UniProtKB/TrEMBL annotation:
It catalyses: (6S)-5-formyl-5,6,7,8-tetrahydrofolate + ATP = (6R)-5,10-methenyltetrahydrofolate + ADP + phosphate. PANTHER family: 5-FORMYLTETRAHYDROFOLATE CYCLO-LIGASE, ATPASE INHIBITOR/5-FORMYLTETRAHYDROFOLATE CYCLO-LIGASE. This is 5-formyltetrahydrofolate cyclo-ligase. GO terms for biological process: folic acid-containing compound biosynthetic process; tetrahydrofolate interconversion. It comes from Marivita hallyeonensis. Its EC number is 6.3.3.2. The keyword ATP-binding applies. It is an enzyme of class 6 (ligase). The keyword Lyase does not apply. Keywords: ATP-binding, Ligase, Magnesium, Metal-binding, Nucleotide-binding.
Length: 186
């Protein structure tokens, strides 16, 4: 079986676990994320606008926006790193190039902390995304110029023990779930 086939199977299983957790609509995850972000008040951060069954970081992002700049990802084109546009609670949004909502008025910013969506994670900081490599390229680019903290945000059910990772996959530094905070040690 090829690496891509293994990843496709891992994604399929992880999507099913994520949907089940999302359907249970468990409270508290955003509050746990807010507690973590409180230690980084004023640090430029980027979150994401949740799509499909992704866990919702918006309440924590709104709280953080009262203390410093918050951005959301903008996909310019396939195969390229993301850029980030400044977001504020209740700002006007439009559909971006790949259908993900982006602020109507684009004001680019560079985050030092990223709240990263994911399909599956491992306790050692492994992350399985959607397969486009956007966050891997982006984290690699950001980390090449300064320390950049990547916080995976997920349902606990998205944990996997054996992710099919590649050398280009960028690790998470911390993982926040609806149940706990996992500090990654390397």
């Amino acid at each position: 079986m090829t690496q891509e086939a293994v990843k496709a199977e891992a994604r399929k299983a992880a999507f099913a676990r994520r949907k089940q957790a999302h359907d249970m609509n468990l409270p508290g995850a955003s509050g746990r994320l807010s507690e973590i972000l409180a230690g980084y008040r004023g640090v430029p951060l980027a979150g994401y606008i949740p799509i499909r069954t992704e866990i919702d970081p918006l309440p924590a992002m709104a709280e953080a926006a009262a203390h410093g700049p918050v951005g959301v990802p903008v996909i310019r084109e396939a195969g390229q790193p993301l850029v980030f546009s400044r977001w504020e609670p209740d700002c006007a949004m439009v559909d971006g190039p790949f259908g993900a909502p982006v602020p109507a008025d684009e004001v680019l910013m560079t985050p030092e902390l990223l709240i990263v969506p994911l399909v599956a994670f491992s306790r050692d900081g492994g992350r399985l995304g959607y397969g486009g490599g956007f966050y891997d390229r982006t984290l690699e680019q950001l980390r090449s110029s300064r320390p950049t903290l990547a916080i995976g945000f997920a349902y606990a059910e998205q944990e996997a023990t054996d992710l099919p990772l590649e050398p280009t996959d960028q690790p998470l530094d911390l993982i926040v779930t609806d149940r706990d905070v996992i500090e990654v040690t390397r």
